[in-house]
Predict the structure of Jacalin-type lectin domain-containing protein.
Amino acid sequence: MQPAHQRRMVASSKVIRVGPWGGRGGSPWDDGPHRGVRSITLAYSRFLESMTVEYVDRSGRPVYGEKHGGGTSRSRSEKIELDFPYEFVTGVSGRYQEVHVGSLPVVRSLTFTTSRGKVHGPFGYDEGTPFAYPMEGGVVVGFTGRSSWHVDALGLYVAALRPETLCDVVHERRLSAYRSFVYGGGGGGGARYPQPQQQQQYGATAQHHQAKRPFEWCYK
């Protein structure tokens, strides 16, 4: 849990895509950017066989990504759970290499670092060409890559961390009643701005409130 006196941090909606690292085999996939990562489930042996990620969208709801890759009954599995929204993935590293002579490279191992300083991994066979993407003030909000019966390549969506604003709270809690209160004109007993025939009675005060609609940018 986050201490009450500390302001919560959230991922910016502006993202960049980095990578992928690995080979050109398999088919491309793209989970897209989200608000954050809640869990990562991996299957691995001599290489990374599959990867499934649970995300969180801008409204705070879970988004379950597809399983990328395959796996066998002999695969080892690991589930990394993060304390979202107080913990983020802040670093990803690994290795890629051919499994057999003449084959295309695949992702052989992965390691994840979180904003709490935890290190998960390496998962897989820690041998081959290394890659890493440490982030200063940034977090992973999505994954992309290529896969077949294993994970052939992996890329990232990265966003900067920033302090939470009231707009974030409105989006997450989906406070339609609050919007009705600010804008008026809806049901549910929300405060309403004076209509044109009432403006003569209220004068400049009503015009001021209509011209200045708080948090309008939250809904664009």
In short: The chain has one domain: 11-168.
